[in-house]
Specification:
By secondary structure, this protein is α+β, with helices and mostly antiparallel strands. The protein is built from 2 helices and 7 strands. A hairpin with a 5-residue loop joins strand 3 and strand 4. About 5% of the residues are buried.
Length: about 160
């Protein structure tokens, strides 16, 4: 009934289960948890580093954010950065305003589309009207020619 025991590469404890972390060596549960905590701490650090890089936007909404790996990135979420004594107090994410602007842009786009459709219909209608006018003019000319023929023959 014995299970095989493995040795963790990091702490050298004997354990029954080893976990893989980002394609690296296999770790025990405790070391795996440490890896996860370090990873989360790195993410938090990067986030505050990112805010440090945009600190010239204090109390302003900025719709683009600087990521060290990728440069300036535009996002739908806006950040407003608040500073007290050179430290970040909090970051306000303004989602509602962005959603409102997206809805407004969508409405304007739909309005322009409807306007273009209406213009196309009016152009088609005016084209049809001109066509009908030409038909009527040709018919009148034809009738006039026939009338001239009849009356010239009668003279």
């Amino acid at each position: 009934m014995s299970q095989r025991m493995y040795v963790c590469f990091k702490c050298e404890n004997k354990v029954r289960t080893l976990y893989e972390w980002e394609g690296e060596e296999l770790f025990c549960g405790m070391c795996q948890q440490e890896n996860i905590e370090k990873y989360e701490a790195t993410i938090v650090y990067r986030f505050f580093l990112l805010l440090q890089l945009v600190k010239d936007c204090v109390n302003k909404s900025c719709d683009q954010v600087f990521f060290p790996e990728r440069g300036w990135i535009r996002r739908l979420v806006k950040f407003t950065i608040y500073w007290i004594r050179e430290t970040i107090t909090h970051v306000k994410r303004i989602r509602a305003q962005c959603a409102k602007r997206r809805r407004q842009r969508k409405a304007r786009r739909e309005e322009r589309r409807q306007h273009r459709k209406a213009e196309a219909r009016s152009r088609a209608a005016s084209k049809w009207a001109r066509k009908e006018q030409r038909k009527a003019y040709k018919r009148i000319c034809k009738e006039n020619r026939e009338w001239d023929k009849v009356h010239k023959a009668a003279r």
